[in-house]
Each structure stands twice: as structure tokens, then as C-alpha cells.
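Reopening: Disrupted in renal carcinoma protein 2-like protein still failing for me.
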Amino acid sequence: MTFGSSITQEEVDKLAFWTIILSGALSLTASYLVDVFQGHLKIALHLLLTISSAMFLWVLLLDDRVLAFHKGELYAAVILGISASWSTPALFLELASEIAFPVSEAIVGGYMIFLSNLVGALFYFSYFLPWMNEHWSTYCAFGNVTIAMILVIYVKEEYNRTKIE
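Support: Ran it again with your exact input. Result attached.
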């Protein structure tokens, strides 16, 4: 993001702190609600990804100066976007484990973590490419969450493990 001197390092530190706190709280809340209302993993994932996508779009519009810049809007969009995005990995693992059953949850989880680490490494190594500007990572975050949101629609929700237990 290129907001220049309009945001101080101290404000960024506070933003990061509150993003971490809300991410933890939202992750626990989402996991709890999915446990209480079983059989709705796909809906929960789609809702969280939609919120995250909308918030990252908001950040893009603020960053590209399409919308007038207000710190409060940026803070809300960043905190909600990242928190909603970070609430999804446990739900993705749960849904994948349900669909892949009787394959071990450890194998499914290991495979998903491997893929996540691979994509993360590619993302971070791309910072070394000289032709990348400061905007690309925000576009990448928006595109990643938006594509995931669309692909979740096509997942056939099956609760193979829950049926047996």
C-alpha cells in the first residue's frame, strides 16, 4: 500500500496488533459456530471469503485513490479483510477432511499445509522481482481471496466422516 506519510509507524503497529487480536477472536467464533450449526461449512467459508474479498477491494479502491482516503475506513477494511481471510484455513481443513474421508486427516492436512507453504513462498520470493511495484501484493491478496470465493461455490459439500460418526 502506498499511503505515504498519512500513516505513521506507530499507527501501523496498532493496526497490526488489533488485526491479530480480531483474527484470533473471529477464527474461534467461526469455528464455534460451525460446530454448533453442523453441515454449513461451505456457507461459512463462502461468507468469510466474501467479506474478505469485499474488504480487500475496499483497500484497493482506497490505495488507487478511487475513494477518498480516510484512516478509519482503511483500518476497518484491513482488520476485517485479514481477519475474515485468516478465519478460513481451519474451516477449509475441516471441509477437506470431510470430503476426503476415509483418507486420514493428517494426510489431508499435511497436503494442504504443503500447498499453502508453497504458495506463500512463491508470494514472498516475488518481492525480489525488480519489475514488481508496491501495488501488486494488494491486488494479489484480493485476487486470491476472490478466486477462492468463486471456487468454493463448485465444491460438492459431503460430510462422509460425520455420517459414520
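Residues 9-154 form one domain. If you still see a failure, please send the error message rather than a screenshot.
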